[in-house]
Amino acid sequence: MPELRSWIGRSRSVEDEISLSAVRRIAGMLDQDPTAYRRGSDLPPHWFSLFFADVARQSALGPDGHPRRGEFLPPIPLPRRMGAGRRTRIHGQLQVGDAATKVIEVAAIEPKQARTGSIVVLTMRQTIQARGLTIAVDEFDAVYREAVPPGAPSPATPALPAPDGAAWADQVELDATLVFRYSAVTWNAHRIHYDADYARNVEGYPATVQNGGLTMHLILDAALKRAPGRLLGFTARLRRPLFVGQTMLLAGRAPDASAGVHRVAAWAAAPDGTLAAEMDLEFAV
Predict the structure, then answer these.
(1) β partners of residue 249
(2) Which of 240, 248, 159 is nearest to 205 (CA)?
(3) CB 74 within 8 A of CB 6
(4) Plot region of 207 (φ>0 → left; ψ -120 to 50 → alpha; else → beta)
(5) What is the rounded CA–CA span in Å between residue 162 and residue 48?
(6) What residues have CB less than 8 Å from 282, skipping those under 6 apart?
(7) The whole model's pTM is what?
(8) pLDDT over 70 (residue 54)
(9) Tens-digit pLDDT profile for residues 140-195
(10) Core-most of 33, 110, 176, 238, by most CB within 10 Å?
């Protein structure tokens, strides 16, 4: 798709105020005490992903609820879009009251032929800045796929068993209200996360789909409860979708200390024991 190459390197800036009201809504959504946060409070290091929503006008949304392609997102000629993974370096923390900026750049556009058909992987690089500092640099991959024929199921990658040898595990119910509140907090209107008829009849899923960003966030929350030090960064890969109403297992191994950092492997498993998402985290010793 040579016509898409001109989009690589395009960038724009999004400003956001890390307001106390927004932080308290996020805390409540994550079952934390909202009043624990006050102006000037440090936020957990991975919370940068909960701000800087893409506030598209209603008339600019496509039939799936995403902003139409061709304005800032490249006009990739495949209709279905899903998150696939990320690579993140953490340099600091946002604080309540910050006036913050996210610089978004089209980093890569890679057409591929996958087992499930033609796909395009779009990588967006996001640099979060506040108080004159770089807070985080995050590369996020989204996969664009072909449409599903009417009545056909969505093709899926082969199932892999979740790892064994976990040192800890948590069970999390993917309740419809949690997924809805996460979509509201992040201003994500992708219909597969709340419109069951659309998810089944158009995109071929058996039910509304758990948000992959929420899965990654919950893995991080679980790992940080057992954190051996300051979070330096992580990589994440979404393997297979989870669905609203399921109970997800979050698990991880004990830290492995080498080369001056603690490395932690963590993952999310579906109720049948298959791997849904995996993450490698680095913590300062």
Answers:
(1) 171, 269
(2) 240
(3) no
(4) beta
(5) 28
(6) 231, 232, 233, 234, 261, 262, 263, 264
(7) 0.92
(8) yes
(9) 999 999 988 887 888 878 899 999 999 999 999 999 999 999 999 999 999 999 99
(10) 238
Least Cα distance to 251 among 161, 178, 142, 177 occurs for: 161
Q: Annotate the chain with DSSP letters as a single string.
A: -GGGGGGTT-EEEEEEE--HHHHHHHHHHTTS-GGG--TTPBPPGGGGGGSS-----GGGB-TTSSBPTTSSS---S--EEEEEEEEEEE----BTT-EEEEEEEEEEEEEEEETTEEEEEEEEEEEEEETTEEEEEEEEEEEEEPPPPTTPPPP-PPP-BPPS--SEEEEEE--HHHHHHHHHHHT---GGGT-HHHHHHTT--SSPBPPHHHHHHHHHHHHHHT-SS-EEEEEEEE-S--BTT-EEEEEEPPPEEETTEEEEEEEEE-TTSBEEEEEEEEEE-
Average pLDDT of the residues in 222-237? 93
Length of the chain: 285
Alpha carbon 53 to chain centroid, angstroms: 13
C-alpha span between 96 and 94 (Å, rounded): 7
| d(C-alpha 214, C-alpha 205), whole Å | 18
* Residue 101, Ramachandran bin (φ over 0: left; ψ between -120 and 50: alpha; else beta): beta
Residue 193 and residue 249: Cα distance in Å, rounded? 20
- Which residues make beta-bridge pairs with 89? 137, 233
For residue 99, give the amino acid letter.
Answer: A
Contacts of 86 (CB under 8 A, 6+ apart): 138, 139, 140, 141, 216, 234, 235, 236
Pick the closest to residue 122 from 136, 105, 137 (CA basis). Answer: 105
